[in-house]
Each structure stands twice: as structure tokens, then as C-alpha cells.
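Table S2 (continued). Query chain:
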Amino acid sequence: MNKIKQGNNQFFIGENEEQPLAKITFIPKEDTLVVNHTFVSEQLRGQGIAKKLVEEVLQYAEKENKKIVPECSYVDVFKRRYPEHRDLFV
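Corresponding output:
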């Protein structure tokens, strides 16, 4: 099982956040999280990992009472594909 871990302004899968197998990064602002990058290594692609990483950021944002600014193209597509989460986006 690929466990998602929290790092410094990111969630990741792998031994450490410097060399992750997958990650999603964000920049915290006053009332938002600017999600600027999603990466999934070839060995993990096709397993829904990117979606799980976005869901992890959404849970974190909700807990911190922040909204998501989707600068990453994958997160922007996620926002449109899953309208049930739209209230968590700017």
C-alpha cells in the first residue's frame, strides 16, 4: 500500500520528501492553499494516486479552514470533474 505522508508544504509517497515517488505541493497563504504541482512517477501511474493526493490536500484544506487555488493543471481538471468538492476551491 502506498502511504501518503505529509511533508513541508506537500503530501508525498515514498521514503522521503526529497525523492518522492509521487507528490502534490502547495503554497500556504492567509486563507488559501495554492496547489502548484502534482507528480506521479511512472511506476505508480494508472493507480489513481494523483486523485488520492488531491483528496488529501482537500481534507487538509478543510481542516485548516482554507480554500484551494488550483494552479496545477491536474487539480484544475479535478475541480471540474468532481463538482461535489467545488466549495473547497476559490
